[in-house]
User: Fold this.
Amino acid sequence: MRYGHFDDERREYVIDRPDTPLPWINYLGTEAYFGIVTNTAGGYSFYRDAKLRRLTRYRYNNAPFDVGGRYLYVRDDATGDFWSPSWQPTQSELDDYECRHGLSYTRIAARRGGIRAETLYYVPLGETLEVWRVNVTNERDTAAELSLFSSVEFCLWDAQDDATNFQRNFSTGQVEVDGGTIYHKTEYRERRDHFAYFACSEPLAGFDTQREAFLGPYRGYDQPRVVEQGAATDSIAHGWAPIGSHHVRLALQPGESREVVFVLGYAENPRDDKFDPPGSQTINKRNVRPVIERWLRPETVADGLAALGDYWDRLLGGLHVTTPDPDTDRMVNIWNAYQCMVTFNLSRSASFYESGIGRGMGFRDSNQDLLGFVHMIPERARERILDIAATQMATGGAYHQYQPLTKRGNNDIGEGFNDDPLWLVLGVSAYVKETGDESILDVPVPFDNEPGSEQPLYEHLRRSVRYTQERLGPHGLPLIGRADWNDCLNLNCFSDTPGEPFQTTENVSGGTAESVFIAGQFVLAAKELAAIADLRGLGEEAGEYRAAAEKMTGVIVEHGWDGEWFRRAYDFHGNPIGSGENDEGQIFIEPQGMCVLGGVGLDDGLATRALRSVAERLATPHGIVLQQPAYSSYRIELGEISSYPPGYKENAGIFCHTNPWIMIAEAMVGNGDRAFDYYRRINPSAREELSELHRCEPYVYAQMIAGKDAPTHGEAKNSWLTGTAAWNFVAITQWILGIRPELTGLRIEPVLPADWPGFQATRAFRGATYEITVRRGAEAGLVVDGERLDGTVVPAAEPGTVLRVEVTVG
Ligand code: BGC
Ligand code: NOJ
Assistant:
């Protein structure tokens, strides 16, 4: 069953009933000001940092999940009937409802009793504000006397503090109302210089800024007393809960429409003693007034929306494919690319599953996210790489996370996830392959942001590789540390007293657990770094990396191979994990993917055998589970992985991030059917028909789908902010469709499902445009502008040129 449909032409997902199984969300904002918006206008906004600069409030663990947002109320002043044109919060019965989530904008339209209201929400480029444009139409054949009320509830900036520190916060709230604009200025008196504003294009019949005055005692947003009575109270908040609400009266003739614009924004305005004498409590609005005036004008709003469309044309224009599969096309051309940009902007901070007050930017996560957006915004990818690398330690180790506002390593979690440093090599390599910009390797970058410690970025990569080499365990495999990619496989956890809660060893570097996953990742990273070293004329060094990769390959084959698949790890006591010797957790997905990605087992048949085992033991119709058999009980020596009930998250859930590794591995062994089959199993668009089971949005990937051991097998969770986005984009575009940037040019080497006759693509690469046609034929070959080339790499062309590339596959 579906709750809507794709409108590919307009690049929108159209939701046609409001009661989706979960809030189906979208993101507003592309640069500094962001908001989450649900299909019922729920969600909140923030400036840069969802924790520290939260503009509007979200109440955690609320029921329903999706309450609190950018709510409007339409009231028929003749009858007193009032309703919300986004369904929430009044949940009044609607004659019509439609939500269109587009690229960085959302439009929600509804009709009741002959009145139609359509609201467009978006954040204009270059601004730190959001626009709500409401069109109210009287479709009756009689005149209508209406009231329109807006509402937002302000967050007192630090969302964590806002949700907990009531004894203080009930007394700090302050607002100012000036010329119909509501200014939220809590904290301004501390000279923090920031405030929010909420403005309306129409003359006001009234306003409210004090929540309880608006709602009335013991009422919620579903039945505000002010709306019920049809008159605002002009309340001014002193402490308690500041809100913003405007009251506008609209008299509409039959067929008449009125456009009302609301602007909610963020400003930082230093006080100016010339205008704001010391002690003055009013905020400095001089810079902000013209901005507000401009954005309340309908023409500006229309132009801003068009500019946003152009922006997305530019970003998405770099790759466009036409294949026999519409689900592939719309994910590659629109939604998967869009989701990659959202992970770039939001990392893992704010969604309906990430609180916005928890995690910062992950070292591992951000490097992988890069794989999905580097082709769209290479300049920002470059900046991101330099930010990440500056948090690396001189040892080559990495803080697991850093704060987006300060860009500094976050000590809460510290270091010791031993896979982290290697992702930097993979991220940088992807950037150089895409852009050809080798100069980044020479950029001086500090270690741990220490001034004076700068070394060329290339030196950071060397240390990443060395970090692994210096931390090998008893079998010669890399030490896992606190965990590797799988945060929950905590093998250096143990308890001296059986039955006691687990402890993580204080000094994980003293832990001897080893990771076959990191071994495979090391082989991959060492080969990538060898290619970069060659590029820099460091042939000897390149040889050393290749030799190290070969040596590690030998260790994997000797100690990491279990007979039919790659083992996962060795625990603290030297017992294998992910082995037929285990009673549970005999086979894990991660090393099957990562070892093959590193090239291990490609020429001795191990790769094919490992992939066969994946197909036989891990694959389900809803995707490939992380391991089997699931852990049936908690095991101190394995840590968090076994804390999850079977089938969820890392305990045998379909952890979607890992599935594309298998798709890529299948493509590497030439199995296009299997690669594409796996791709479709988790492709959200291909799962649209299953929406009742899948429950999450059909237009973006979720981190997890419940595995076969779970009672809710097939149910997705944790949508939007996941490395799944980037890796699926890589798997489908670079390995199945096979359009793969390399250091020397653009490789085009599709590994297609057998029933595909071919496909077409347009790919921008280093400033040139490649018009690619792939067809089946007896003899594989590559023809560029009529000329036959050897191999499958099209050398990088002059910027500005358009190349016609014809590829024949067998
Ligand atoms: C989750 C992991 C996640 C980690 C983040 C764990 O509880 O299971 O998937 O990466 O928390 O800190
Ligand atoms: C989510 C984390 O963001 C990611 O870094 C990790 O690899 C996976 N969980 C698996 O544990």
Q: What stands out?
A: The radius of gyration is 28 Å.
